[in-house]
Amino acid sequence: MALKPTLRNLFIDKEFTEKVNFLKNIPIFEGLSNSSLGKITGIMYSKKYPADEIIFEEGKVGKALFIIFDGEVAITKISNGTETRAIATHEKGAFFGEMALLEELPRSATARTTKETTLFLIYKVKFDWFVEKDPRVGLKIIHNIAKVLSARLRETSNFFSKTL
Amino acid sequence: MTNTKIYKILGLILTICIVVWFAFAVSSMLMPFVLSAVLAYLLSPLVNFFETKGLKRIVSVLLLYSIFLVVFIGSCIILIPQIFKEVSILSKNIPEYTSSIRGSIYSIQQTVETKYPIIKQKGIFDSTIKNAEQFLNTETSKIPEYLAAVFSMISIFVLIPFITFFFLLEGKAGINFVFQKIPPKYTETILSLICEIDEVLGNFFRGQFVESSCVGLLSIIGLLILGVDYAVMIGIIAGLANMIPYLGPFAGAIPALIIGFIKFQNISILIKIIGMFAIVQFVDNNIIQPIILSKGVNLHPVTVIFAIMAGAQVAGVIGMFLSVPIVCIIKATFMIIIHRKDLI
């Protein structure tokens, strides 16, 4: 009876299982099987950032999607030329920079860590390669990204309609 | 620019210079490490495949090695008897070939000297044959040295799987360690560099490997059809030589031409062999390459030829094989530095 967990500990990577379970709860990976999420971990890089560190700056071309594994990230935007305004704060499980997976355009805001943060990065070239290799899963992810962007667009429209 | 930044840049340049100097100083013993690194790079997608199934890295590497061991033993059972058979026939036939070549040279000498008596008067043929014999005698006396070199090659091939194992096991952790040390500001740039180099190198190495295997197999079939001896050996040589772009296919055809001429002693077999290799290259260029996208390196042919010659000058055959991927890395780095300043 005790053999099964022992064998599992011997062969199965705990860190991998933890990553897959984490990705299950990320909206852009919704509906993906464990096997597909396992493949996603293969194109993912992880990096630890200290507190108050710039992740990317507004205006620079974005090439990667970021997922917060642990910590907190503030998104700021320059308004009126010089003034910096905080537009959102993201915590564990949130993601940002998803537009970089679709197009190579300048970032629309700056991302900065507010405390020590671990991020997962998915780079566009790797994502494109993944979509080419596994179009079924790739299409599902792109569909999920479209759903997220659509929801954000709706939120923005509602916000403007209320303020105007 | 602040003083600290200048010191950092100078330190970086000095470190690069020391690394390059050290690499040159120990270049003679670098070969197994370079080959292992290439092999580990080629095999890493298979290890990653097992890892994405949830297996630990060490288990994935051991599983891969077990599969390779089975494949290797299987190939040995199938191929080794054929190679041994060809080598033993070749060594048995060498005296016959030598006398046959001597006979051919003698008959050509007779024909030419009858037509042009001045050649006989000047003793051009005799002196040439004497020089050739002298050269052969000198080279034969070096056989023990060559054997020693072969043994050193064998020791390298024993060492390679051992080093590759550790590269496969620790390589990812090593890259991850470096990635963690990169200042956050440059993360996206370095990641973009790693991914783009990986993309180009992956296309090149995996493409070359598949392409060379196909060329080797097609050459073996072609040579068997033409009835050329040692088809398996020559096919393997042609496949390996094909890994060197442009020059490889010519180098691969030479052993077949020599063996074919020795056996059939006529020009028509040479034309048939050249024709066969041309067909193999045609199939390679028009069917195999477009499928596997091995030419995704996007380099100008002149650049490739220059790189191969420079590689040969610096590090011999290994240099020829590695020159194109090195140029690809340099190109990818420059493209990011020049065209994507916005990333830096």
Brief summary:
Chain A is α+β, with helices and mostly antiparallel strands. Chain A is 41% helix and 28% strand.
Task: Describe the fold and architecture.
The complex is a heterodimer of chains A (164) and B (344). With 164 residues, chain A is of the alpha+beta class. Chain A contains five helices and eight strands. In chain A, strands 1-8-3-6 form a four-stranded antiparallel β-sheet. In chain A, strands 2-7-4-5 form a four-stranded antiparallel β-sheet, with no helix packed on it. Chain A is globular and about 65 Å long. The model of chain A has no long low-confidence stretch (mean pLDDT 87). Chain B is mostly helical. Chain B is 87% helix and 0% strand. Chain B has helices spanning 3-25, 31-51, 57-115, 117-122, 124-141, 143-181, 187-226, 231-241, 248-264, 267-292, 301-339. In chain B, helix 7 packs antiparallel against helix 11. Chain B is globular and about 85 Å long. The two termini of chain B are 16 Å apart. The model of chain B has no long low-confidence stretch (mean pLDDT 78). The chains are: A alpha+beta (164), B mainly alpha (344). The A-B interface holds A 10-13, 16-17, 20, 35, 38-39, 41-42, 45-50, 53-56, 59-64, 106, 121, 123, 125-126, 129 and B 48, 51-57, 59, 176, 179-180, 184-185, 187-188, 191-192, 195-196, 199, 340, 342-343.
Q: Kindly state the percentage of residues in helix of chain B.
A: over 70%
Unreliable sequence segments of chain B: none
Distance between the termini of chain B: 16 Å
Number of strands of chain B: 0
Instruction: Compute the average pLDDT of chain B.
Output: 78
Q: Indicate the structural class of chain B.
A: mainly alpha
| Biggest sheet features of chain B | none
Secondary structure blueprint with pairings:
The complex is a heterodimer of chains A (164) and B (344).
Chain A: H1 3-11, H2 14-24, H3 34-42, E1 44-49, E2 54-56, E3 64-70, E4 72-79, E5 83-91, E6 95-96, E7 110-113, E8 117-123, H4 124-133, H5 135-163
Antiparallel strand pairs in A: 1-8, 2-7, 3-6, 3-8, 4-5, 4-7
Helix pairs in contact in A: 2-3, 4-5
Chain B: H1 3-25, H2 31-51, H3 57-115, H4 117-122, H5 124-141, H6 143-181, H7 187-226, H8 231-241, H9 248-264, H10 267-292, H11 301-339
Helix pairs in contact in B: 2-3, 2-6, 7-8, 7-10, 7-11, 8-9, 9-10
